[in-house]
């Protein structure tokens, strides 16, 4: 919109603003409802009296979480998993992206490796062979099964490659003339210049790893090593309101507690809600992958 | 020749850098591709996938002569294509509307709020939805206020299950998908709007004749690229929401592979279904990228 003339707030603007407020509510309504349930009394929540505001305000459910040792164990597993995956992913992505961002003149094997990477992104062997390979490596029921398979993310690597390619060639040339070898160039020049994009990619890895449940489901048997999302899933499967009558649900929720589950959901959301607003900057490059010539 | 060139340019440094990443890719992506052999084997856990006897296409003929497979394929196509259509239209409409918001601060705020769901896992969302859609959940309470007496068991109904999959998927992803269109909208030359202003165009006319044509390229490109998802109906979502009651309408290729592989422990059949999906998807991807690069100048790198 132009800033040429001062425009007054018209009916059209009012309609758009109202629509946007409605859309916002739709987007976070379900989470607000869960938050309200987690802060309500068990009786009122089960009677279905809670909408978007706590009824019979109590912090009981959050106190109960403190008694749930498995919730804490699983949270700790997830934290460790995130730290390992993010750290390894940072280093490996950096080392993978740098050679592939060189021109063929500097690194003649660039293109075959690049195609290999893209092929791995587009085609996979499927779940079952992957499962068998990980088991054959002796990783079943080990932390490594939750970390190693997710270290290389081709999508993120291509993002970093494209960023590296945007770094002015002169920097690289002058460093070469001064006798810097590729390692020095990467760590002295490229790394400091690309901290923002690397930070974004790392945040992406944190969020994806935190949310991952399937590997925890198929590889982990020992509750000591079960990640948080897998644990939460096991709770939600126990109580399945989709084909139960209300009496059955009330019966089941005496065993598994509505407000407690809501509180667990809210606690598991906290890290994501804290991180995601910082993920905006490089989205466009990420989604568009590569370059679109207008 | 090549090696000489490599030595001169310090290329071996580069090769050394590639080692960890390529090693991990080899182990966790490429070796499993060889595991696709299992689709042609009579798999024997004792012998492992490298030494089991080959049986040709026996597994495939079993899969293709099985009614469940065709049902699953039908479900996958219906769900995935519905998601593709609504997953394009809703973000475009939203982006066009958000683009009309003049207060930058409000615009940024709306955007940040609406793409929160994209970052939540389907495990969590399913937990929330099961509560909201249950017999005494939020939606049924609202319906009761409108005068519907019998609560609708949404997630236990073969009529409702697919619309809910499509609806919740669009709800989760539209804010994130709109980012691309918003970026395209900011690239439109402002002088076009000014000229239209001079000619007395209304706000709606500007959307219709400037904004919409301005993002056509992006829309066509993304529509083309979305072709590759025709067999991806969303494993995480369905896996966390479905139950035996809605299997006739909700079972998709990926959940079928999971069930056959991990619940019936029939690795070779699961792999055969998986290979069928991977192969078709791969062809679709190649076609989509070819079209995209020919008509929109799109390159992966």
List keywords for this structure.
heterodimer; A: 294 residues; mainly alpha; 16 helices; 1% strand; disordered C terminus; B: 301 residues; globular
Q: From N to C, what is the helix and strand string of chain A?
A: HHHHHHHHHHHHHHHHE
Number of helices of chain A: 16
SSE pattern of chain B: HHHHHHHHHHHHHHHE
Strand content of chain B: under 5%
How many β-strand runs of chain B? 1
Biggest chain-to-chain interface with counts: A-B, 117 and 112 residues
Give the N-to-C terminal Cα separation of chain A. Answer: 21 Å
Largest sheet of chain B: none
Structural class of chain A: mainly alpha
3D shape of chain A: globular
Structural class of chain B: mainly alpha
What does this molecule look like?
The complex is a heterodimer of chains A (294) and B (301). With 294 residues, chain A is mainly alpha-helical. Chain A contains 16 helices and 1 strand. In chain A, helix 4 crosses helix 8 and helix 4 packs across helix 13 (228-238). The two termini of chain A are 21 Å apart. Mean pLDDT of chain A is 85; it is low at 289-294. With 301 residues, chain B is an all-alpha fold. Chain B is built from 15 helices and 1 strand. Chain B has helices at 2-8, 11-34, 58-64, 67-98, 104-114, 122-132, 138-145, 161-186, 190-198, 203-214, 216-226, 235-241, 247-250, 253-263, 267-296; one strand at 298-299. In chain B, helix 11 (216-226) runs antiparallel to helix 15. Chain B is globular. The mean pLDDT of chain B is 90. Strand 1 (291-292) of chain A pairs antiparallel with strand 1 of chain B.
